Amino acid sequence: MAGEKYVYDFSEGSKDLKDLLGGKGANLAEMTRLGLPVPAGFTITTSACRAFLATGENPPSLAAEIDDHLASLERDMGRELGDHGDPLLVSVRSGAAFSMPGMMETVLNVGLNDANVAGLAAQAGGDERFAWDSYRRLVQMFGKTVCDVPGDAFSDALDELKQARGVRNDVDLGADDLAALTATFKRIFAKHTGHDFPQDPREQLRLTIAAVFRSWNAERAVLYRRQERIPGDLGTAVSVVAMVFGNLGPDSGTGVAFTRDPASGAQGIYGDYLQNAQGEDVVAGIRNTVPLERLQEIDRRSYDRLLDIMATLEGHYRDLCDIEFTIERGKLWMLQTRVGKRTAAAAFRIAAQLVQEGMIDRDEALRRVSGAQLGQLMFPRFDLSSAPDVLATGVGASPGAAVGKAVFTAARAASLAGSGEDVILVRRETNPEDLAGMIAARGILTARGGKTSHAAVVARGMGRACVCGADSLDISGSSLRVGDVEIAEGDVLSIDGTTGRVYRGAVPVQPSEVVQYFEGSASEDELVQAVDMLMTHADDRRRLAVRTNADTGDDAARARRFGAEGIGLCRTEHMFLGDRKELVEKLILAHTDQERGDALAALLPLQRSDFVDLFRAMDGLPVTVRLIDPPLHEFLPSLEELAVTVAVARERGEEHADDERLLDAVRRMHEQNPMLGLRGVRLGLVIPGLFAMQVRAIAEAAAHLAAEGLHPRPEIMVPLVGAVQELEMVRGECEQIVAEATGVPILIGTMIEVPRAALTAGQIAEAADFFSFGTNDLTQMAWGFSRDDVEGAFFWRYLELGIFGISPFESLDRDGVGRLVRIATDAGRAEKPGLKLGVCGEHGGDPESVHFFHEVGLDYVSCSPFRVPIARLEAGRAALD
Amino acid sequence: MAGEKYVYDFSEGSKDLKDLLGGKGANLAEMTRLGLPVPAGFTITTSACRAFLATGENPPSLAAEIDDHLASLERDMGRELGDHGDPLLVSVRSGAAFSMPGMMETVLNVGLNDANVAGLAAQAGGDERFAWDSYRRLVQMFGKTVCDVPGDAFSDALDELKQARGVRNDVDLGADDLAALTATFKRIFAKHTGHDFPQDPREQLRLTIAAVFRSWNAERAVLYRRQERIPGDLGTAVSVVAMVFGNLGPDSGTGVAFTRDPASGAQGIYGDYLQNAQGEDVVAGIRNTVPLERLQEIDRRSYDRLLDIMATLEGHYRDLCDIEFTIERGKLWMLQTRVGKRTAAAAFRIAAQLVQEGMIDRDEALRRVSGAQLGQLMFPRFDLSSAPDVLATGVGASPGAAVGKAVFTAARAASLAGSGEDVILVRRETNPEDLAGMIAARGILTARGGKTSHAAVVARGMGRACVCGADSLDISGSSLRVGDVEIAEGDVLSIDGTTGRVYRGAVPVQPSEVVQYFEGSASEDELVQAVDMLMTHADDRRRLAVRTNADTGDDAARARRFGAEGIGLCRTEHMFLGDRKELVEKLILAHTDQERGDALAALLPLQRSDFVDLFRAMDGLPVTVRLIDPPLHEFLPSLEELAVTVAVARERGEEHADDERLLDAVRRMHEQNPMLGLRGVRLGLVIPGLFAMQVRAIAEAAAHLAAEGLHPRPEIMVPLVGAVQELEMVRGECEQIVAEATGVPILIGTMIEVPRAALTAGQIAEAADFFSFGTNDLTQMAWGFSRDDVEGAFFWRYLELGIFGISPFESLDRDGVGRLVRIATDAGRAEKPGLKLGVCGEHGGDPESVHFFHEVGLDYVSCSPFRVPIARLEAGRAALD
Question: Residue A820: its chain B contacts at CB < 8 A?
């Protein structure tokens, strides 16, 4: 763009220009504007990066702009880049609007060369060791990150030198050693790149900036963006900052600090300081840091100044800030600030504190906590007061605290769990063959793989605790070893899927105090008070009602304590399990109307009594009952097992008439794709009396409670409707039975879970009092994914490839499935403005998805009892969007 | 509506007012306007019917309007309704815009009562028998159709009387008998209705009109409309017509006539005449009719007048007309005319004749024939002159006449056919394992399943004759039995896939001359000339290109002769069957990259040679190759069978290591819902090298032919894409391989068969050169129907309940699946205006669906070779819409 400004001095930017200057550049500018001591510098915009990536060249005007800003930087610092006697050095830092792993981060000491390394030593009061160390770091960092020289080539040379000198630590190498090492590094550089290390400081700078630009498209960065759905065309900014040194003597140093405790949220001074050191050294862990309070003894003036600055920043950002600083010969410099990450508990505490301090209002506080954080606070935790042995640490891949006997094969997991044991399945890594064992286990532990490995993805999908990538574990077929500890099958392990820690033995599990609060046991704890304040505010704000998915009176009562405002989904097929399976088998195998009628008649009073319990627990609130949904053969034995039983019995010449009859039935009812087969409303239209029995049970239960003076509010929901004709027929039958059985008004509506139902929602609305989106099935059919099959078989691969950022079963796919929800919502409301709209798929409890449902204009979400508070919180947050 | 006109005299209407006056009323009005001799009368509009059905009452102004028109009718006829001495009688006829079974049709003789029956006799020259017969018919017809008196009650009384009188026929009953019968009928009427037969002629008329109105909502009519997707709120019109009598002596009579032969289309006089009779008697078949020509001997004046009128009508309607007439004492009256139904051959011949006669233009001729009719003309037929034995009758599921030796397994079918025999594959039902046998057979016969069973669908897809659901067949492993007839392997059967009949022995087959014409053997036959003219005109008119679905060079060559302009779908998995199954098994069971690579390397030259044949046959035309789509376990044995084999072998203590290994693999790959599992693009992204092998084979085949100087135009199609990311990845891989292997340009596109692909088509278009709608899978997923499961399980019931008029797998569901096609078309073209769009589901050859695809704006349809001419014809017709 002609005349576009590509370079901003720190004094020209502000924190609101993140998109243009990146997070780092925008915050450096903001601190500069606040008058805080920031080294001079400037930021090259993301727009310049976009132009570079589009054309492979810098925009024509960029070089001159950089020259101008560099000249001004030189003036400010009183030093010149490339000067031999008193050289200016700069650091070059990337910084996109979102922080993004995989991109090039920083190159320090740009500007050093053979000619001015002595000048740097002079600047540092004659410290030659410091100067050569700075130079060899530049060659190493520049080689690795700008020119793709393998890092090992440098570190191997360093190790060789230390060995030759007989020293253990870098700091034990002297100036001469480091000068020699620099020469070695330059040879390595030339060998790998085919040209010498560039001596021209401006060329160093130019190449570094281009490398930062290019790193926007580094493989890991691209993958990360794909996963996080960050647009690929934003580009990164580049900040060029005058170097300051914390390693120029005891009156220098470097540190990090938080304005509040990021773990607990408690107010105070939290941070670490390392005297006579640079940031790199803190990371390398060569020497121990000291608590930040100690700085007041070391350098009282800088300490006081730092505290002032931290108060300024917190007041300005109105939030916990995370800062990096350096002290160069007693002068404090701010190198970075950002709103700090924090634990879930701290997020709630800090939000509440800031409200109390009058820094933010309740809306803002609500924006700063999330349902995901609340979820973390609701998981039970290990009671670590006994200081259990940490056996290993991996990636916390699926939260939860699980205790059980270690098993090393899926088959053993299934058999031990089958006999009532809690087991932890331990595998080097899992694959689709391990699925049965993963389902059987309380938790899953692997030595390999990260958050998107097969184990992690499947465990999250199933709600199992999972630690993966605990790479210190040496796992064989029947045991694991860590160092000299061996864990054999049957030995007890405890795994924490939040922290990634693995403990030996059984660690006691502590119930979450937040869950206790929801359950109604009061507490004076600060966290609980914060949660209470924020939940109350969310409830005030939200437009979406929150219901629960529950099939029993107990679940319903619990969910009601958690704040559920009704039941959005009662799955009646769950009432067909246990002892009743026998009756269901009779129903399925019935050969005559009489047999079928008898089986239904026997089920009627049982179903009625289930509904009496449920309606009682939810008295006065709506209860949506879904008529039977799954294919009937789900209530029969497996075809494979039965076929084998019969064949083997036959081979033995044994009697097997009953099994043969059953096998015939199972074979007859076997379906290639039961998900898309005879189920839901199709069953209701094909099997006479089935839906009628359920509707009668609902209506009679309502009549019974109404006679007691209660206020039952049942709603009948027809599953798997794809055409209005199906609903019309069932509705006609329902209305007649309801009119016969009770005076209680009962709404009749439908699931929208088949894509065609969404596409023809205008027609379907004519026959429906409400729609409830079944987003699980809608996702299965819109994507063509059978959840039973694909999650284990290839979702891990899709996550790895970045085709999904997150499974569409976890968080609603807005573009595809979400579009169906929108189409149906719009058409349904256009046909019938008062149509009640809700969602009862698992997405009803997913934070991201709750925002979508709010945005689309649904009336309620329904989710599992445990997720009700999360949905309430997110519904409140969504109302603030 | 205030002031709305509800009644039209015949002189006020016209044939263009069908919606208001119904078909019958509009045509009576048209004939009246043409000055033809139509008895006086008037029509009550469909609008009056709608008002009646909405409120349960006639619109307030209707009674007065009817009175006015009745008065005018009385003036015209010189008789009054209810007059004792010279009564006016009327017929009351229903008539909707669409002809519709299940509605009340006609009540004759309205106006007769106890007081004027003698007057009618006097009118008829003292014929008392005629008068009493007319009266008893009124009581009977009015009782049955207006008052729901069971018809048997009347016919039983009539039978009793005949028995008592010792006569066989109604005509042998005298005037006294009929007077007595009338009295009996009135008693029956009173007993069933609780009131006497109404004596007031105006009440008779009022009640009859109301009954016609109500019959719009008769169960059969509602079901029919639901099935035919005729809106339920149109209503029917009612025509009131002065009675004329053909049974008043030898100078009276009644007849039907066609202006051309409705069977052959030949010009001339076709019809039947019955002297001294009424229309009812013709239907009852009591006496034999005579050919219409005989009328010139009986009543030359009326005959000549009739011929004049027929010429007038044909000239006016510009089409074959079907008429009903009555001669009352030498005076000709026209009672009805309509455009006549005709056979498929006649439709083509008549259309061509009318063009030659200058009566219509070619566009109009094309409108008057249909793809369904053309399809009928393409099937070979049995020559039934030898009156062969009908062994059984089933559902005619895929038309055609097939003769061959009965075989009872797919393997025998393949081997016998391989040695040159014609075979009929007989199975209880078929499944995908029978595919090779189905391909090898001339025809397929099953005992189970309907028009949408696996056998039916696959046979239709392959153009094989198929009779299914012949449930009298008792099929065992190696023979079939019907009653005491047994058919063993090798016995010859003949099956007619149009009529569903199965014959024992070889019935001679007549080849279709229309197919011979398409195959290129010329003929001077009038039918072939007509087809040629209409096909040529359709090709001139159509915008849609027509491609074919073909997997072999032979199929491709045949389709090309039938007019295919390329291949829209080559299913590469069909190339993985037969001998190659072993290689595929190796691929699936491969444990190492090496094993997998070896299996793929062995498949490469085979696939390449398949493509060489295919591209050669379609030289110069586009060939769309779909990369492998079905789940790999389809190439492995069935889980149930294998589990039984292994269990039994184990029980016997036999060796079974190979089977066990195979069973492990089958179990590992088993999916709950394979349709929604690991298949299509998912396989390509999970199994390294699989797609690459296929793409290499395509590119190398193209290079090979290009080197010969030919012009291969391959297009690569990626199946089951749901997200643009999937397509991008495969596209990247394809482009690289294509660039390495050939200079021939190859388009890369995707199936749109997953609903999400349609919903996100704008994104997907960015990475696609073309879309091809896979409407089979799109239908499965949009409705949530697994075709393998639901068609047999409940489609029959859905068709019966009227939820479908036709299976959505046969004809595209416009509202649901069609909406997805529209969404994707619009979004795809918006993103990429030049995007090529086609369809390759079976709907591509369905006439209704072709019109939809034209309307939506696709570029081409693709269908089985046999359907190519049908699609061409319908694409031409669609362009005229």
Answer: 755, 759
- One-letter amino acid for residue A369 of the chain: V
Distance between CA atoms of B725 and B721, rounded to whole angstroms?
Answer: 9
**Could you report the per-residue pLDDT of B643-699, keeping only the tens digit for each?**
999 999 998 988 878 888 888 888 878 888 999 999 999 999 988 899 999 999 999
**CA angle at B812 for the pair B569 and A631, rounded to the nearest 5°:** 95
Contacts of A18 (CB under 8 A, 6+ apart): A26, A97
The 3-state DSSP class for residue A398 equals strand
Query: Which helix (H) or strand (E) covers residue A588, if one does?
Result: helix A581-589
Q: Which residues of B touch A433 (CB under 8 A)?
A: 668
Contacts of A685 (CB under 8 A, 6+ apart): A726, A729, A730, B794, B797, B798, B801, B803
Per-residue pLDDT tens digits for B356-382:
999 999 999 999 999 989 998 998 889
A518, two tokens: 């929801």
Residues of chain A numbered 375-434 and touching chain B (CB < 8 Å): 432-433
Nearest Cα to Cα of residue A259 among A244, A270, A250: A270
Q: Give the nearest chain A residue to B758 (CA atoms).
A: A816
Q: In a 3-state reduction of DSSP, which class is residue B209?
A: helix
| Confidence label for B1 from pLDDT (cuts 50, 70 and 90) | very low
Chain A neighbors of B673, CB-CB under 8 A: 673-676, 786, 788-789
Q: Report chain A residues whose CB lies below 8 A from the CB of B686.
A: 793-794, 797
580-639 of B, contacting A, C-beta below 8 A: 639
Residue among A651, A760, A794 whose CB faces B682 most closely: A794
Please answer yes or no on whether B643 and A648 come within 8 Å at the CB atom.
no
Q: Is B798 on the interface with A (CB under 8 A)?
A: yes
| Residue positions of B annotated with a catalytic role | 454, 840
Chain B positions touching A648 (Cβ under 8 A) are 647-648, 651
Longest dimension (CA), chain B: 106
DSSP-derived secondary structure for B667-709: HHH--SSGGGSS-THHHHHHSTTHHHHHHHHHHHHHHHHHHTT
Reported as a single tens digit per residue, the pLDDT across B294-307 is 999 999 999 999 99
- In this complex, the residue of B651, B675, B798 whose CB is nearest that of residue A673 is B675
3-class secondary structure per residue, A729-749 = HHHHHHHHHHHHHCCCCCEEE
Could you give the CA distance from residue B159 to residue B173 in angstroms, rounded to a whole number? 11
For the whole model, what pTM was predicted?
Answer: 0.85
Q: Which residue in the list A69, A454, A843, A854 is annotated as catalytic?
A: A454
Let me know if A285 is exposed, middle or buried by CB neighbors in 10 A (0-12, 13-18, 19+).
exposed
Asked if B778 and A771 touch (Cβ cutoff 8 Å), the reply is no
Alpha-carbon distance A658 to nearest alpha carbon in chain B (angstroms): 18
Q: Is A195 a catalytic residue?
A: no
Q: Verify whether the Cβ–Cβ distance A671 to B794 is below 8 Å.
A: no
Comparing C-alpha atoms, which of A474, A476, A454, A477 is closest to residue A466? A454
Judge: B783–A729 Cβ closer than 8 Å, yes or no.
no
The kind and range of the H/E element at B549 are strand B545-549
> pLDDT at position A1, please?
45
The letter for the amino acid at B771 is F
Residues B5-22: tens digit of each pLDDT: 999 999 999 999 999 999
